[in-house]
Amino acid sequence: MLRKRLLLLAVRRRTHVTRKTVRIAMNGVTGRMGYRQHLVRSLLAIREQGGMDLGDGTVLWPEPLLVGRREHVLKEMAERHGLDPVADVSTDLDAVLADDRVDIYFDAQVTAAREEAIKKAVAAGKHIYTEKPTATGLAGALELARLAEAAGVKHGVVQDKIFLPGLLKLKRLIDSGFFGSILSVRGEFGYWVFEGDWQSAQRPSWNYRSEDGGGIVVDMFPHWEYVLHELFGAVRTVQAQATTHIPTRWDEQGKPYEATADDAAYGVFQLEGGAIAQINSSWAVRVNRDELVEFQVDGTEGSAVAGLRNCRAQHRSATPKPVWNPDLPATESFREQWQEVPDNEEFDNGFKAQWELFLRHVALDEPWRWDLLAGARGVQLAELGLKSSAEGRRLDVPELSL
């Protein structure tokens, strides 16, 4: 009898669930990141799990509207994933933004096209969620933040790295006081991007042309800004050396072109509180580490090395006593002296996790801090990094405000 009552109660609860649809215009989903991470692994994944339970009997149901220039690609994409190739596809951004059924505008286009599109979306009263960098310069990035605030729309910037398992474990160590006083952060990021002559490149050619918004400083310094800011403290100074190691590359048609943008950058950042961060970024480095990006954090009480998925730690009480002797081979495995930080929970896709938080922010007005002003800080750091490299000096990083 009890079992029957429980089943009946469960059925009644399901029948009283209300579906709330949120229509999301996704501009730039034909690109690798926009398609794989934002469409497939985020919004479509939310649909596959039955939507987002808001906890009040309401399920939030995202409806993507694919926007771009190549209609045939968008239609094929829609058909592949069970979307309507007519109703859920558009090549007319102005018409999409004029549609009252559209709630959110998401932008994953090339950076050079992003600023103008977001301005239009804000003017149309749409909530904004965007990839970074948010603009090609600090003035434009700040203008977007101010326009969005004045319009009263909600706005967010993708800051995916801090939602990844390795950095979530690192954050757990920080919050527990494991490190004591943090002294330094050392980051290594990069891999060899093929030049394109005898093996096709893994990145589009525009990434290596400064006139098209390319360059590793513009691409990666916004990431380093929010990682450092969220985990260790605001960046107060920057000294960087940007360079182009590979001067000639081959484009998607197999034609050689001059690489006018930097493909490597070596930065030193002084953080609020006194810690020093050093981060190397390169598309001209061969990988000899466990993951494509790793951060080593050293503190008075312990150290840790975190990648995208894994994190290893060594406490002060378990720190060995290495002895420098170049005349004898090392007899100990230093890597084996570190302890793996356990998962202790199930980690979801980092992009999806942030999408869910933003959708809850839009639907329920829950707290949110990764806004367009945070995005502007990333643009600022990239701009100052390039200026530091050009002028050969350390520069202060002023605090931004609206």
What can you tell me about this protein's structure?
There is one protein chain. The chain is built from ten helices and 18 strands. The protein has helices at residues 2-15, 32-48, 71-80, 93-97, 111-123, 138-151, 165-176, 216-231, 350-364, 372-391; strands at 18-27, 52-53, 58-67, 89-90, 104-107, 127-130, 155-157, 182-190, 235-243, 248-250, 256-258, 264-271, 276-282, 293-299, 302-306, 311-315, 339-340, 395-396. Strands 17-16-15-14-8-13-12-9-18 form a nine-stranded mixed β-sheet. Strands 1, 2, 3, 4, 5, 6 and 7 form a seven-stranded mixed β-sheet that branches. A two-stranded antiparallel ribbon has the order 10-11. The longest helix has 20 residues, at 372-391. It starts with a helix and ends in a 6-residue tail after the last strand.
Features:
402 residues; nine-stranded mixed β-sheet; 10 helices; globular
Taking the alpha carbons of the first and last residues, their distance comes to 62 Å
What's the SSE pattern? HEHEEHEHEHEHEHEHEEEEEEEEEHHE
Structural class: alpha/beta
| Percentage of residues in helical conformation | 25-40%
Summarize this entry quickly.
The protein contains 10 helices and 18 strands. By secondary structure, it is of the alpha/beta class.
What is this structure's SSE topology?
Blueprint: H1 2-15, E1 18-27, H2 32-48, E2 52-53, E3 58-67, H3 71-80, E4 89-90, H4 93-97, E5 104-107, H5 111-123, E6 127-130, H6 138-151, E7 155-157, H7 165-176, E8 182-190, H8 216-231, E9 235-243, E10 248-250, E11 256-258, E12 264-271, E13 276-282, E14 293-299, E15 302-306, E16 311-315, E17 339-340, H9 350-364, H10 372-391, E18 395-396
Parallel strand pairs: 1-3, 1-5, 3-4, 5-6, 6-7, 8-13
Antiparallel strand pairs: 2-3, 8-14, 9-12, 9-18, 10-11, 12-13, 14-15, 15-16, 16-17
